[in-house]
Amino acid sequence: IGLSLGWRAAPFIVGAITLTATAAWLLLGRESKEGDGIKDPSNLRAMLQVLRQRMTILLGIGFVGGFGQNVAMSTWLPSYYSGVLGFPLETSGQLVSLLPLFGIVGALAGGFLSAIVGLRRPFLIASGLSLTVFGLGSFLSPIQPLLIGSLALLGISSFLFLPAAFTIPMETPGMTPDKVGMTLAVALSMGNFAGFISPLL
């Protein structure tokens, strides 16, 4: 069925895989009994306090910057390359597809290197600074090789910080699995909301 849909085949296949994985998790997945403590009202109050913690807010701000820029660039750059630089639409799309491709490299590098070095801060700082530099490079140069390099490095920078950022709540004193989940949920929600409004801005 998917192959007969033409250009719709790829989304169909991705959706089918996602649906299959979700169904398998619902049928076969097992949840720890320790997570049932959230039903206690005192635990619920403690969870809500996580929303006001400085770490939750700062983590969310970090996701706002990274996610907002990534989505804005992914939606805006193809039109810019086509309308301003005169690239064919196909070429514009291929150039911007380098962002998620090299994002894989950035995510893996962020996880492995921070584990080897034993530090998170250098990767957080490097990712934040390089997002600005390579973000500007992705549209200020009309020379295609420079654009390719900037886009590849921007893709790496956009995901380099994520493995380090995800581990910050886990090592905070007094954190429980439920609180870590709440912290990351709030931070990711802030980032995804920024991704929603950034193309409009």
Characterization of this structure:
- With 201 residues, the protein is mainly α.
- It contains 9 helices and no strands.
- The chain has helices at residues 9-28, 41-50, 54-83, 89-96, 98-117, 121-140, 144-160, 162-167, 177-197.
- Helix 3 (54-83) runs parallel beside helix 6 and helix 5 packs across helix 7 (144-160).
- The longest helix is centred in the middle third of the chain and has 30 residues, at 54-83.
- It starts with 8 loop residues before the first helix and ends with a helix.
- The mean pLDDT is 81.
Concise summary:
The protein contains 9 helices and no strands.
Describe the largest sheet: none
Q: Structural class, from secondary structure content? A: mainly alpha
Straight-line N-to-C gap: 39 Å
Strand proportion, as a percent range, falls in under 5%
> Strand tally, please?
0
Question: What's the SSE pattern?
Answer: HHHHHHHHH
Q: Compute the gyration radius: what is it?
A: 20 Å
Tally of helical runs: 9
Mean pLDDT: 81
Sum up the overall morphology in one term.
globular
Q: Which residues form runs of ≥5 with pLDDT under 50?
A: none
Portion in helices: over 70%
